[in-house]
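Page 42, continued from yesterday. The earlier attempt failed because a stray header line got pasted into the input along with the sequence. Redoing it now with the clean sequence only.
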Amino acid sequence: MLDIATLKQLVRTIIATREDEIGCDDCFNELDRFVEVKLKGKNAAQAMPLVQHHLEMCPDCREEFQALLEAIQAR
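This time it went through. Structure tokens are written below.
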């Protein structure tokens, strides 16, 4: 049985679904480039909107993005 919070998140995810989405594999393959754009001070969301949208929708990929960004910034 789904709790209310999980059900609400599922509905939000369904509503936000787009025809031109990418999956986790494609997002992961683009994360290094997405981070590079972001670290150059450019608008990564504008440059790579499909990756941005996926990161907004997928907590696992968002976690990978944050870890990669923090690892590079720690250098």
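Notes: The chain has a mean pLDDT of 89.
Reminder to self: strip header lines before submitting.
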